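Whiteboard transcription, Tuesday session. T.W. wrote the structure tokens on the left side:
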């Protein structure tokens, strides 16, 4: 009798195990920097649920990953269940009807542990289409040894930053003639939009009036910020070479000891303080970006989110995977083992996380002030307009800012009209 029960029990266990193992989930993601860590995390999910996750690894580039995911969604691929979205994709994917609303899975109270900017970026017309996975934002890196040498606290306004940079560069000219005051991303690409948005918003400017759905590039506060970059930064405290810099080039200048200040993302912390890569390791600190008088520090939001395909036939299972991957437990693993900036605020208070990443204590304050880029279904086209405007505006000392802004506003108005006609 006992033997019969044992055989039945074993058969049931085998059936349950096989049934679970036969269930699969299709997940598309970009190429990770730490593939072995992803193997480990997905492996935990598979062991605990019995679900087999089929991962399709796309390119590391956001643009190339976008092409891969959109092609699958345009084809209404029923095998695609979960995918990762860059921070500017949610409006496009929601308006196209490709991403599923996650409101029924993710209650309002569950969102309180996430940074507000990250939640806003995942929201389109009142509905949530993504769950933040990791977050990012613009930071001000600075040479703490040089600021201390000249008796400066980290600058809180852009004017203070310029004055400090001028003083330090003049004082260090004999020993380091290559030293510049500032390094950032001013090439004509998406990074330029991120950098310039931080200047504009910290001067109480805005790029779009969401209520009237009008472009506001030419607002006086916006142009004042752009003029400051053109007249006080480009070719002044920064070399004109920054007009060709993306993140790697701007960081290289800083870690070679040739810049006092650097605007970059959180990833630059580990590189800046790695003695095998940086000549200024141990001499670097971070703070929030400066602002203009009467304004507040503004940091452009970056990061990636998990999303669910509207064409998935396994939506509950897809949500189980998303919930697992964005849980405090997994966020903590990634923070400790990959120094990945979590999207959950609570993880920044975890003693083990702070022991491994002491600078996370400062990141939390930065991410509270992150601001998403304008939510537009046709964002890539909108970004292209901004990129052309900003680069022309700051590249020439006598650039006609008002005329360039008027032209850019006209182009955005036409783009908004196209969106409206398409029902987006």
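and on the right, the sequence the group agreed on:
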């Amino acid at each position: 009798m006992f033997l019969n029960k044992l055989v039945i029990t074993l058969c049931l266990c085998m059936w349950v195990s096989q049934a679970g193992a036969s269930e699969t989930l299709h997940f598309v993601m970009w190429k990770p920097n730490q593939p072995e860590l992803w193997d480990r995390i997905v492996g935990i999910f598979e062991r605990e649920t019995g679900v087999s996750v089929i991962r399709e690894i796309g390119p590391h580039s956001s643009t190339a990953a976008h092409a891969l995911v959109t092609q699958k969604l345009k084809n209404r691929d029923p095998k695609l269940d979960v995918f990762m979205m860059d921070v500017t994709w949610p409006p496009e994917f929601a308006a196209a009807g490709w991403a599923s609303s996650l409101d029924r899975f993710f209650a309002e109270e569950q969102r309180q542990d996430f940074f507000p900017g990250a939640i806003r970026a995942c929201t389109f017309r009142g509905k949530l289409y993504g769950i933040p996975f990791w977050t990012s934002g613009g930071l001000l890196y600075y040479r703490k040894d040089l600021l201390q040498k000249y008796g400066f606290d980290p600058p809180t306004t852009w004017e203070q930053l310029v004055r400090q940079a001028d003083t330090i560069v003049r004082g260090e000219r004999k020993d380091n003639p290559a030293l510049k005051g500032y390094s950032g991303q001013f090439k004509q690409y998406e990074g330029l939009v991120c950098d310039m948005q931080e200047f504009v918003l910290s001067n109480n400017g805005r790029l779009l009036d969401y209520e009237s759905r009008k472009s506001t590039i030419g607002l006086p506060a916006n142009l004042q910020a752009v003029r400051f970059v053109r007249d006080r930064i480009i070719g002044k405290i920064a070399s004109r070479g920054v007009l060709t810099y993306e993140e790697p080039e701007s960081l290289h200048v800083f870690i070679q000891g040739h810049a006092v200040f650097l605007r970059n993302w959180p990833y630059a912390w580990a590189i800046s303080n790695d003695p095998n890569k940086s000549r200024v390791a141990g001499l670097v600190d971070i703070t929030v970006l400066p602002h203009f008088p009467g304004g507040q520090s503004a940091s452009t939001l970056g990061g990636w989110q998990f999303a669910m395909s509207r064409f998935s036939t396994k939506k509950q299972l897809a949500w189980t995977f998303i919930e697992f991957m964005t849980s405090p437990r997994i966020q903590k693993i990634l923070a400790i083992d990959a120094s990945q900036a979590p999207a959950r605020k609570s993880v920044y208070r975890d003693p083990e996380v702070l022991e491994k990443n002491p600078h996370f204590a400062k990141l939390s304050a930065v991410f509270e002030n992150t601001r998403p880029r304008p939510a537009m279904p046709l964002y890539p086209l909108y970004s292209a307009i901004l990129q052309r405007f900003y680069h022309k505006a700051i590249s020439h000392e006598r650039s006609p800012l008002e005329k360039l802004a008027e032209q850019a506003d006209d182009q955005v108005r036409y783009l908004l009209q196209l969106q409206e006609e398409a029902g987006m």
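Someone added at the bottom: The chain has 17 helices and 14 strands.
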